[in-house]
## 1
Amino acid sequence: MTPLPPHLEEAYRAMLARFVAIPSVGAEGRGQSEMAHALVLELEALGLDTHAHETEGAPVIFAERRVHGAPSVLFYNHYDVQPADPLDLWESDPFTLTERDGSLYGRGASDDKGQLVSRIIALRWLRERHGDLPFGVVFVVEGEEEIGSPNMVRYVEERREQLAADVGIWEFGGVDAHDRPLLTCGLKGIATVDLSLRTAAMDLHSANGPVVQNAAWRLASAVAGLRDEEGRVLIEGFYDRVRPPTDAERGYVEATPRDDDVFAEHVGVERFLGGATGAEYQRRLQLEPTLNVNGFHSGYGGPGMKTVLPATALAKLDFRLVPDQQPLEIVALLHEHLEREGFSDVVVNLAEEPERPARVDPDDPWLRHAADALEEAYGTPAVVIVSSGGSGPLHPFVEVLELPIAMIGVSYPGSRVHSPNEHVRLVDVHRGTYATVRLLERWAGLAPPD
Amino acid sequence: MTPLPPHLEEAYRAMLARFVAIPSVGAEGRGQSEMAHALVLELEALGLDTHAHETEGAPVIFAERRVHGAPSVLFYNHYDVQPADPLDLWESDPFTLTERDGSLYGRGASDDKGQLVSRIIALRWLRERHGDLPFGVVFVVEGEEEIGSPNMVRYVEERREQLAADVGIWEFGGVDAHDRPLLTCGLKGIATVDLSLRTAAMDLHSANGPVVQNAAWRLASAVAGLRDEEGRVLIEGFYDRVRPPTDAERGYVEATPRDDDVFAEHVGVERFLGGATGAEYQRRLQLEPTLNVNGFHSGYGGPGMKTVLPATALAKLDFRLVPDQQPLEIVALLHEHLEREGFSDVVVNLAEEPERPARVDPDDPWLRHAADALEEAYGTPAVVIVSSGGSGPLHPFVEVLELPIAMIGVSYPGSRVHSPNEHVRLVDVHRGTYATVRLLERWAGLAPPD
């Protein structure tokens, strides 16, 4: 590993401290414009032509510098962060970057300010290594990723020409639990829906149980029938559009190093769904679509008893989808399933803008460069992940802009992303930023300076 | 109807005002001893030998005056009340008795202070009518009815001799929606249980859905299998001990005046379970045991989405039982059912002390007197209800003390018992108290004074 030069490590720490100090919590609608402004200053300092593009939500910060005849690299990142609560579980103030034991703590220290700063510092480093940036750079930094990127698809579609590039680097990435660098090549799609039900005008005394339908039981019954004990979704047509994995994808999934035993111990689970271990565990995580119940609430939940017959019930679901499933079609299938099963009184509402699944080809030559750069920076081969189990607005970048996208970065499984005590390890900042530098050099056809 | 004499109406109002002013909310553990003391003074003023009997919870106020050679009547009542919240829905202070439009408003104005005061005033009236009380009187007034009477069974069993009586008057009663007097002859039993489940050591990101079991889904699945769409309980053995109704019980159920249409409109229900109307609706309410889901809670329930995979789930159930079902046996059957269905990870806990079902014979001569007294007081025949859909500590009084029990009183369906703006109508106080007077005269073999 080639470490960041000390002055760039210092610059990383200082820029991240400025960013973390701005509580740009999208869900709370605060700090967005201040953060956007701070980001514009940093991107302009890189010599990029920088603009705040208005959307129906928070502005997208767009920056570019094109180099005639050279490839352009698009960086997708976001400047919003998750809420910091529960505050009492933080060991230091979430909005004051704090260094402890070789790590930098704060909300956004990893997701996504720490990643974004790593890319900016990588570009500075490249300029120092080569006197200039001899390739095109495009930044797309949105402010609504943590609330589901509701305006990203339209933004990319409307600015397709302006965003044109040859290859992209995604907002996150890092190492696995054994410090092996990950090269993730896809994200699942997501559709989030609320199921709600009313069986009477008001909650009633449970003495009416023999005659009035119980909303909690009825919605439990509807939800129970949506999948089976091993997680298989029972909605007719749900799997129809699932694209069978290619031999290459199957090969990468089978080659993913085993870590289900470590995870099982960490989360206290004795048996995974389907009894999955090893390659089957990885296949499920990377390639299987699912239906999750995020929450179910009806009636009384306090201590002791309350003999109420609840008139309303609410279940919150998310579907994680794989290519070529279509989120809105899946929601329509859910509708039809409920009708068919006699649950036409269950109201289905989209909770958030859905996201479509997307993958890039791990064997694309641009991605092979990424694997090589990672091996060089980390001294160990990259682990190719065909698809993350998570979601994000990857689809328009892959399908509209037709970009091969590399997901690499400075995170690790213990970064506590979205949780109290989020942090980035300095060791990951050094090697992750160096990997980015080497990848950009490879893509631009530059030899590393002596 | 013979109204209460004005000075007794005034005495009713004044005593109820004193009682309502004491917030004896059992669930909040406040006002109990002050209320017990106020009650002791009133019962002593009636000339009864009055004691506060300690229990493991709130004391039972016991009062008696025996008359050699005459029958003894036991009054079961309670001096605790439900919590007053939500406070903002009260039109007057819940702990200040307030008269509006011919009704007296306040927490406990009906349940059970209003009923209790009616019985005390009835005894005063009887003394005025006959110069003395020529029959035995026993009061058992507990302070924990609203939290499930956890100490009543043991209390009755331990003081079986001391409580001996010939007949009893229960803590509640009144008229139906058409102002017909009700003579209720039974209560259902109740067992309340919490079902809880843990599938992982912590809530996880829902990207883990393909491999980690979802606690919300799994408990929904367990709960869904406990009953069917029309309310039939699917737990093996659940109905085994249900005693078939006698011809007389069947006859009373069929003769119950139809009021399901009024209730359907009031609660906004288009179809009752099993499509029940008329006599079948009454049969279900009075004779069918049920399983109710009082609440179901797991995971996220706020606005928008949160892509969490919940590791825990909680469901709160109540079983309403009929003779000769045994609450603890039913809980054991629930256990066995869950084991058999593969839900051995669902933890079953009793939420509160269960109560056994009990009924008295509507054709018992003591009860026939009650029907006659009601018809005399209300000018219309009493409606015999074989069993209320609700529960209470009736079983030890019927089965241990072997008392025929009449459930009569001063309530009506709009009394808003357990809700904001609880009240008693003065018209019900007049005729309900008079019915009590006439019933006691009939039981004691006294002719009404000229």
## 2
Amino acid sequence: MPEAAPPFNREIGLTVARPQRSRPDQPSKLAPLQALVAADLDQVNQLILARLDSPVSLIPQLAGHLVASGGKRVRPMLTLAAARLCGYAGRRQLGLAAAVEFIHTATLLHDDVVDESSLRRGSATANAIWGNKSSVLVGDFLFARAFQLMVEDQSLEVLRILSDAAAVIAEGEVAQLLTANDTETTESAYMAVIKAKTATLFAAAAELGAVVADRPAAEAAALRCYGEALGIAFQLIDDVLDYSAREVVLGKSVGDDFRDGKITLPVVLAFARGNDEERRFWQRTLERSEQSEADLPRAIELLERRDALAESFQRACAYGDTARAALAGFADNPAKAALLDLVDFCVERAY
Amino acid sequence: MPEAAPPFNREIGLTVARPQRSRPDQPSKLAPLQALVAADLDQVNQLILARLDSPVSLIPQLAGHLVASGGKRVRPMLTLAAARLCGYAGRRQLGLAAAVEFIHTATLLHDDVVDESSLRRGSATANAIWGNKSSVLVGDFLFARAFQLMVEDQSLEVLRILSDAAAVIAEGEVAQLLTANDTETTESAYMAVIKAKTATLFAAAAELGAVVADRPAAEAAALRCYGEALGIAFQLIDDVLDYSAREVVLGKSVGDDFRDGKITLPVVLAFARGNDEERRFWQRTLERSEQSEADLPRAIELLERRDALAESFQRACAYGDTARAALAGFADNPAKAALLDLVDFCVERAY
């Protein structure tokens, strides 16, 4: 087992948060995975660019903007590494990793329309540049391209896994829309949303590795479990970072979720534990969307007072443990080590 | 061959246009098709309702609103009738007809967001009631559900046909966005758009009938050709009706395309044939979107002056002839007769 996650930094805030692991003298925990799949990922990137092509030139322009804008490609790397973990030596993982990234990119395009975002990964969003209409339609195109890639793979099992995932993701996105601005959202409702909208694609991406390698159902289930727990941890940390990371590090604005009235776990916990005055604060700022300049620092202060960021971080660590445990049945090898390090990477982004 | 389409009514306009065929004393040309597939369509409708279900209750609410709002189900009926034409006696056509309708409904939801429409088939659009965000996400859900239905059918050929169709439809929608407000749009650019965004799904829906019946490639190609030509005729008539039908008949506002700055064939023809003053009119109203109350009647007047509606109607008739000819190789039977009548129905909506 890798070292336990270090204790959460209680001094988290707008100014102090920084990803210590990415200091130049300390290699990123993402590095082993990146090294393991580098050659495969090159081919996936080429395939992605090739399949973005269309006689309608706005499509490769707009989609290329997002695809090229510096995403870490965590999801396709999961498929590549899981295939490696299962001893697969063929090439099917390449097309499927591209399909996974296309589904993810389609979701991002539609997300940014829904959230009316103007910044993602530090760059202007596609909807900010080309408008919402283009983002909706190019998202549809990418989704269709993903299915074309799966059809070429010729496995109904793969098609089942990813079409099921796509339906659950969409359900999660709608459910998230319904919890927006609702401070009465329960922790279980929040968890159901992030399991659907984020963890489902992580789970499917990892499971595909066992499917292409034609491994027994138990191995597919273990990889699915790994991916799901990792995805939940990843999203929990994302939600914590929205109240703590420096903009320059995360490439997104701190306080986006707050301004959008999104109800994430830190808010759920702080609201449940808050006094009447605190609840009125959350109701005013998140339900009625009445916010002033001073409200974001105040929100962070209340989250700290109620241990909400620290506890959300601890939940992420627990899901990280679940993800690590899911790999216990696999023999030790570089792919397994890289997938274990990926858990650390996802969780340690938070301090 | 059915009777030739009657001559186009030159007096077309806001007050005179009416679908003579739907007079109570004259059965609709859609009736034979409806009778032929009534039992199957009942099952498709039940399947659609069952598959709209989701623990996220907004999904069946929103999608159900659109699915139940009185669409004619032309596309799923195409699949059902084509399967019958090919002598198929199984049940695969049911799930695939539902998948086709889901893809169509997803497209409508996203279309209404893109067009900022508030009325469809005489009812408020989903985006007008539940907002654009919900429409985008529920559209994604329906698209995923369509693929789940195809996966259950277990045919990679079906999955190929409909994933290819979905990609082409999205390309067509993006291309349409790019021609919007552009009076320099050529006739061939316009034709490419409607072939992609409308005719592709008609073609796929019809082709599926031959695929489930396991008929030779030539029959699949003939049905595909029939569906494509029918879809083009259908869209051409739709574009004519936008400048001529009575609102009460069509369930959509006359002049929607004009107000949206959409460049349809009537406008392409009128612009090409217009004098300088007329071109300035089209540029002001469609390119710069500077419109007043008097502009829609004026637009209709200019379309009439340049024979643009009549000629668009004639093109639709020619595609109708192509559709009929594509069925020449099939033996005469009630399914063939119904599909031939469907061509009349689509074209005769215009007078």
